[in-house]
Structures are given as C-alpha cells and as structure tokens.
C-alpha cells in the first residue's frame, strides 16, 4: 500500500502550490486529482484485503474493474458539466490527439471512451508494476511531458489571446501543476522504491498513477497522444494480450513469461538492467532477446 505515500504527497504539493501563490483551485486540476484518489482507493481496498487476509487474493478482478468503471463514469460526467466563465468545460465530447479533431460525439459514446482510457491506462500501469522502481520511474517522463504540455497550452491559450497555434483548453497551467505535484511525489517515492525497494506501491499506487495520466490526457485533449507518451505501458500490456491470445489460439507462447518484464527476467537480465532499459523506452527492446549479455542490435 506504499502508493498511498505519493498520493498524499501529490495532494499536499498541489495544495501548497496554490497556498503559496494564492491562486484558486480549478475544476480541471481538482477533478484529475479526484480521479487519481478514486482509483487509488480501489487499489487500496485490494491491497488492504490482501494484508488483512494474509493472502495474495484481494478484490476479485470483476469487482476491481467495476470500481474503476464507476469512478471513470463519474469523472466523465463531471468534466462535461463544469463550465467556467468562458463556457469551457474541463473536457468536451471529442476525440483528440494534439487537440480535438473531427465532429463532436454524443455524451454516451464519450463516457464509454473515457472509461476505456481510464481503465486501460490504470491497468497498463498496474501490469508494468512488478519490478522495483519500474512503474514509478517509467511514469515520471510522461508526467514531465504533461508539465511542458500544460505550460505550452497556457502560453497559447485562446481565451487569453489568439496565437498562431492556439489551444482551447480549460485550466492548462493548473493541469501542469497537477503533473508537477505527482512528478515530485514520484521522485521522492522512487528514492525508496529503487532496487532493492524498501517500499512498494501496490495496486494503490499503480491504479492511482494510471488514473492521473488518463485524467491529464483527457483534460489537455491529448487522448491519443498518451499512447505514444506511454509507449512502454502499451508495450507491456500488448505483451500480455499477445501471450494470452497466442496460447488460446495455438497453444504456444510467444514470450517466456508475460508481462514483458518477466520475459527478460527469465532470460537472465538483472532486475536493475531491466528497469533502466525499460525507463529508456520501447526502442530498447531492439536488443536481442536470446542473451542477457548480447550487444548485437537487430535491424
């Protein structure tokens, strides 16, 4: 349940930042943090049941997913129903990459889309967690990117001035503050979570981190960009999907073990080597898998 440490630290950092600058809280920032706390609470329940029962069994997978879906639905409606003085809501019913694109979609499809983003991201980070420092270290560059994205969007905010590359985003600077708060909290957590770890995030932390990344992507209107920024999480998740699909259809396994980080463990890579190379991102997977000491680069 060590993830509760950086969830609380993130909230403290956000509150202190606003107290120091005397700026009011914004709907976008608060909703993203509430999404993080809500998913963290689902993970905390799972972790607590494991500790209380002294077993590896916590919430059933269906119950855990149901909790994520309920919180995601509440978040989706809230980001659509909180207009500011410019009649901007924290999100709107569009698909987005660097900004909204295409025609607006109806409320129900948007809510379903938000559920997919939130549950998908939360569980992707959860799958990536498993080696000391892996999930927290891999999340930090994504959070750093959202700090820059929020600042950039603030400097090119259409509600302030018409810039050549203007963005119609609600509270972009406060979203950068949220990302910076969680980034700082993860830095402190990683100090104690680096191999050999003295504290473990559990589902409390991994679901919370996935929630804040999903919330930032939705509110900064960079939903599909998250697939690129979180490429490591996508790779790990797809390794699990490929492994299960291949075994069910052919009876054969593609990887020695899934998720992907455990494949490299079986190959003989040290835990620190796997963690650092995964921090570097999916391009590091170009290294040959047949030998832990191989220096040959394919292609």
Throw out a few tags for this protein.
two-stranded antiparallel ribbon; 299 residues; mainly alpha; globular; 2 domains; disordered C terminus; 11 helices
Could you report the average pLDDT, rounded to the nearest whole number? 89
- Total of helices: 11
Principal-axes geometry comes out as: globular
Main pleated-sheet profile: 2 strands, antiparallel
Assign the structural class, choosing from mainly alpha, mainly beta, alpha/beta, alpha+beta, or little secondary structure.
mainly alpha
CA-CA gap between termini: 42 Å
Low-confidence stretches: 286-299
Radius of gyration, taken over Cα atoms and rounded to an integer in Å? 20 Å
Record field, number of beta strands: 2
Helix content: 55-70%
Q: How would you spell out the order of helices and strands?
A: HHHEEHHHHHHHH
Strand order within the widest beta sheet: 1-2
User: What share of residues are in beta strands?
Assistant: under 5%
Number of domains: 2
Explain what you see:
This protein has 299 residues and is an all-alpha fold. It has 2 domains: 3-229, no CATH class; 239-286, no CATH class. The protein has 11 helices and 2 strands; from the N terminus they run αααββαααααααα. It has helices spanning 3-21, 27-53, 61-80, 107-128, 134-155, 172-193, 202-219, 225-229, 231-250, 260-267, 271-280, and strands at 95-96, 100-101. It has a two-stranded antiparallel ribbon. Strand 1 (95-96) and strand 2 (100-101) form a beta hairpin. It is globular, with a radius of gyration of 20 Å.
């Amino acid at each position: 349940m060590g993830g509760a440490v950086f969830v609380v630290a993130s909230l403290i950092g956000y509150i202190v930042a606003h107290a120091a600058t005397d700026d009011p809280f914004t709907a976008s920032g608060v909703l993203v943090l509430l999404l993080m706390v809500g998913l963290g609470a689902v993970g905390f329940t799972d972790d607590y049941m494991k500790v209380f029962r002294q077993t590896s069994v916590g919430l059933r997978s269906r119950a855990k997913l149901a909790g994520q879906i309920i919180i995601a639905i509440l978040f989706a409606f809230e980001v659509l129903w909180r207009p500011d003085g410019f009649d901007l809501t924290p999100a709107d019913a569009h698909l987005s990459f660097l900004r909204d694109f295409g025609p607006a979609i109806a409320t129900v499809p948007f809510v379903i889309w938000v559920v997919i983003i939130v549950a998908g991201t939360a569980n992707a980070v959860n799958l990536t967690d498993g080696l000391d420092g892996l999930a927290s270290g891999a999340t930090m560059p994504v959070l750093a990117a959202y700090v820059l994205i929020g600042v950039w969007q603030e400097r090119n905010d259409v509600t302030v001035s018409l810039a050549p590359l203007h963005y119609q985003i609600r509270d972009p600077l406060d979203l950068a503050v949220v990302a910076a708060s969680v980034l700082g909290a993860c830095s402190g957590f990683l100090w104690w979570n680096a191999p050999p770890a003295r504290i473990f995030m559990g589902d409390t932390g991994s679901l919370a981190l996935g929630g804040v990344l999903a919330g930032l992507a939705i509110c900064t209107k960079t939903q599909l960009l998250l697939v690129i920024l979180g490429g490591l999480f996508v790779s790990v998740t797809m390794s699990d999907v490929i492994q299960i699909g291949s075994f069910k259809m052919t009876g054969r396994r593609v990887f020695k073990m899934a998720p992907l980080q455990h494949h490299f463990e079986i190959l003989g890579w040290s835990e620190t080597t796997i963690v650092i190379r995964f921090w570097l991102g999916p391009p590091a997977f170009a290294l040959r898998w047949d030998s832990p000491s191989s220096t040959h680069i394919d292609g």
